[in-house]
């Protein structure tokens, strides 16, 4: 039985400012008081699982237990077909300790090189956890292609090099509202909302 979210306050289990803003915007219609793990001074747990859902659940549970509040965690990344799904769950690590995504995009482009297959998927796993260890998990995915040179200053992470299939703009070129309508995170959120909030 899926658990409904009935509380008034929710922790976003992330220290990534771009991700926190995006998740807060998606939650805005529900009038929930949102606070980030960083605002609460919660440490970032080490991501030791081998899947997006595993890492999202690990982060959500850690924040829910520490804050004694429900927590929502996201684990997302870009899976490049020519790189056997890399950077995948290591997408943030490719950006190094300073989260330098310009460098990470250069790395991805260099690794792909002249490979004819430019397909990539953006994947987002969302885990909603309660302090009693109950968890609901959801996963969204969007297919696209890598572009180089990167284009656009919007979004964050790998957005400027990812062009969703059927569109002529990268996520980095799209206004936030357009990206929110169809991104991997939006698709995972749609499932979460229908199951736990609607």
Radius of gyration, taken over Cα atoms and rounded to an integer in Å: 16 Å
Order of the strands making up the biggest sheet: 2-1-3-4-5-6
Q: Please estimate the helix content.
A: 25-40%
Q: What is the arithmetic mean of pLDDT?
A: 94
Number of strands: 6
Biggest sheet, in brief? 6 strands, mixed
Strand-pairing-aware structural class: alpha/beta
The level 1 CATH classification is Alpha Beta
Strand content: 15-25%
Shape: globular
CATH T-level fold name: Maf protein
Unreliable stretches: none
GO molecular function: dITP diphosphatase activity; ITP diphosphatase activity; metal ion binding; nucleotide binding; ribonucleoside triphosphate phosphatase activity; XTP diphosphatase activity
EC number: 3.6.1.66
Keywords: Hydrolase, Magnesium, Metal-binding, Nucleotide metabolism, Nucleotide-binding
Family: Belongs to the HAM1 NTPase family.
Q: Mind explaining what this structure looks like?
A:
The chain is of the alpha/beta class and 198 residues long. The protein has one domain (9-197): Maf protein (Alpha-Beta Complex), CATH 3.90.950.10. Helix content is 30%, strand content 22%. The chain contains five helices and six strands. It has a six-stranded mixed beta sheet with strand order 2-1-3-4-5-6. β4 (119-129) and β5 (135-146) form a beta hairpin. The longest helix is centred in the first third of the chain and has 16 residues, at 52-67. The chain is globular. The model has no long low-confidence stretch (mean pLDDT 94). Substrate binds at residues 14-19, 76, 156-159, 179, 184-185. Homodimer. InterPro entries: dITP/XTP_pyrophosphatase, ITPase-like_fam, RdgB/HAM1.
């Amino acid at each position: 039985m899926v658990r409904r979210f009935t509380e008034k306050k929710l922790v976003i289990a992330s220290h990534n400012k771009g991700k926190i803003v995006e998740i807060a915007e998606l939650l805005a219609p529900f009038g929930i008081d949102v606070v980030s793990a960083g605002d609460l001074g919660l440490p970032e747990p080490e991501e030791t699982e081998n899947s997006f859902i595993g890492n999202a659940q690990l982060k959500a549970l850690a924040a829910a237990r520490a804050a004694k509040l429900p927590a929502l965690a996201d684990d997302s990344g870009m899976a490049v077909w020519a790189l056997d799904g890399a950077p995948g769950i290591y997408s943030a690590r490719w950006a190094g300790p300073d989260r330098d995504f310009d460098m990470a995009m250069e790395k991805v482009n260099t690794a792909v090189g002249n490979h004819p297959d430019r397909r990539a998927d953006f994947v987002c796993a969302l885990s909603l956890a309660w302090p009693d260890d109950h968890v609901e998990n959801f996963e969204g995915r969007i297919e696209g292609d890598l572009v180089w040179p990167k284009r656009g200053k919007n979004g964050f992470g790998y957005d400027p090099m990812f062009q969703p299939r059927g569109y002529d703009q990268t996520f980095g070129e799209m206004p936030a509202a357009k990206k929110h309508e169809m991104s991997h995170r939006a698709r995972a959120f749609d499932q979460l909302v229908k199951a736990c909030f609607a």
